Amino acid sequence: MNSSNEDAPSERDETSPPHTKRSRKSRLLEFLLWTAVAIGTALILISLTERLLPTNF
Questions:
Q1: Distances in whole angstroms, Cα of residue 53 to Cα of each of 17, 39, 41, 50
Q2: In terms of pTM, does the model score above 0.85?
């Protein structure tokens, strides 16, 4: 069991790209993407809340 646990971090290190080599444009685009996802999620939750709860709640 220990040998399989020791192999897992090395596999993660090989598959995950280092963050220092990414360009600023790439990081900015990822930030904008996650911002859009967060805003979209908030809007969906607000619209569902307005439908499920009474207006005077």
A1: 45, 21, 18, 6
A2: no
